[in-house]
């Protein structure tokens, strides 16, 4: 259902009283051509508001801290015990990367767009990696499965040749011919979000499952330390194997490639899937809601030249404001959609309260981000959470443990 976006009045500021439309305002699609109301990206507090660019920066800083924590923890035994008991770095063989543990998602940031890991992780990564390969590029990655490798070519990640789900060729795509007619083509293995959505539609129809169930399985694939979702028992072994491989590819794209370009994606992608898994969004709304793309911030159709640079400008603007980007969404569809999605997830998760002070609300948001990360990436710590619905767990904002990712 299309959102009803209120007109932005001249001189309107997100510091104005936003509570009157908060309850009725919702957004399920993004348009480059329509101004975005302040309520979509602003969190009202009793003293001053949290602007959308602050939300993006909070997500970015959280992922940076998470990465540093994972590496520091892995290196502690090396420092203290001369290497005894050290958590190994991500597994590599020649130029192929293999994710074998959920902590390796943040450890590998920077290494998924066809380049070696960036400055944040390379010193750790090369404990077991051949230093002579430092300037070379990864040529493939695998996710919890050394037999299935996803090739990396031209800074893009590909499905293996001839990969199918049942009788569906995932490389199917549509292109415009010289006479402007759309024709079906095959062989595009660096899947677009449109191709990914077509594959998900096929999975839904073929196996009579819903978006929420697929998202649950995709989230399960991030850690693989618990039993597969119960609904998978109705599928044949080959069917579930093909679906899991496809979702591994999608995770490699969302939590590897996208997160290497914009680190906040590691958290924001989890928010997107969590909303789908809980029936708030569909994959269609996420990946292809309209001609401009989907609500997933990185599914942007059309020309995206400059959008990342504009996002950086928005994130660093002081004093904080998103008004320039809200009034001209084409400046950075990525930034606007990131801010919108973060707020949607926080609102759904029951984190927001306009009675909170700015600092109290930020503390609550930090707790919620930690909860989300723990629930999906560190499930062995779930003893502090309600596995069925961690949002309603009374201990949720009173965690007292030191997280070891």
Topology:
Layout: H1 19-22, H2 52-81, E1 91-93, E2 96-99, H3 104-107, H4 122-125, E3 140-143, E4 150-153, E5 156-157, E6 164-165, E7 168-169, E8 173-176, E9 182-185, H5 193-207, H6 211-220, H7 237-261, H8 265-277, H9 283-287, H10 307-316, H11 323-327, H12 333-348, H13 358-377
Parallel strand pairs: 2-3
Antiparallel strand pairs: 1-2, 3-4, 4-5, 6-7, 8-9
Explain briefly what this protein structure is.
This protein is α+β, with helices and mostly antiparallel strands and 405 residues long. The chain contains 13 helices and 9 strands.
Q: Give the integer mean of the pLDDT values.
A: 80
Helix content: 25-40%
- Tally the beta strands: 9
Distance between termini? 39 Å
Specify the overall morphology. Answer: globular
Count of alpha/pi helices = 13
What would you report as the Rg, rounded to the nearest angstrom? 21 Å
Biggest sheet overview: 5 strands, mixed
Structural class: alpha+beta
Q: Major sheet: order of its strands?
A: 1-2-3-4-5
Poorly predicted tracts of residues: 1-12, 383-390, 392-405
Instruction: Write the H/E string, N to C.
Output: HHEEHHEEEEEEEHHHHHHHHH
């Amino acid at each position: 259902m299309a959102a009803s976006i209120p007109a932005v009045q001249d001189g309107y500021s997100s510091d104005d009283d936003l509570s009157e439309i908060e309850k009725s305002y919702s957004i399920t699609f993004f348009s480059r051509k329509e101004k975005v109301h302040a309520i979509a990206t602003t969190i009202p507090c009793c003293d001053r508001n949290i602007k959308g660019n602050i939300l993006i920066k909070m997500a970015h800083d959280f992922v940076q801290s998470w990465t540093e924590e994972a590496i520091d923890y892995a290196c502690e035994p090396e420092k203290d015990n001369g290497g005894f008991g050290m958590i190994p770095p991500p597994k590599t063989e020649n130029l192929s990367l293999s994710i074998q543990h959920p902590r390796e998602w943040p450890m590998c940031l920077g290494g998924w767009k066809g380049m070696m890991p960036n400055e944040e992780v390379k010193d750790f990564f090369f404990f077991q990696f051949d230093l002579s390969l430092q300037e070379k590029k990864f040529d493939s990655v695998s996710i919890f499965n050394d037999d299935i490798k996803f090739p990396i070519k031209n800074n893009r990640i590909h499905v293996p040749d001839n990969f199918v789900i049942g009788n569906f060729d995932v490389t199917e795509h549509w292109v415009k011919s010289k006479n402007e007619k759309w024709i079906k083509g095959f062989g595009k293995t660096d899947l677009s979000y449109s191709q990914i959505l077509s594959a998900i539609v096929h999975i839904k129809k073929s196996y009579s499952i819903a978006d929420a169930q697929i998202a649950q399985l995709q989230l399960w694939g991030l850690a693989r330390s618990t039993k597969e979702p119960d609904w998978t028992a109705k599928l044949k072994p080959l069917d579930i194997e093909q679906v899991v491989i496809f979702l591994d590819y999608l995770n490699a794209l969302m939590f590897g490639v996208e997160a290497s370009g914009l680190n906040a994606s590691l958290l924001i992608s989890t928010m997107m899937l969590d909303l789908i898994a809980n029936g708030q969004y569909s994959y269609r709304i996420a990946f292809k809601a309209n001609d401009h793309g989907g609500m997933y911030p990185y599914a942007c159709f059309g020309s995206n030249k400059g959008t990342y640079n504009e996002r950086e400008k928005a994130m660093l603007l002081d004093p904080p404001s998103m008004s320039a980007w809200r009034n001209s969404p084409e400046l950075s569809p990525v930034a606007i959609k990131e801010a919108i999605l973060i707020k949607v997830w926080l609102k759904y998760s029951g984190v927001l309260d306009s009675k909170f002070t700015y600092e109290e609300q930020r503390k609550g948001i930090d707790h919620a981000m930690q909860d989300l990360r723990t629930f999906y990436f560190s499930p062995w710590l779930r003893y502090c959470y309600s596995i069925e619905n961690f949002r309603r767990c009374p201990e949720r904002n009173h965690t007292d443990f030191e997280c070891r990712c």
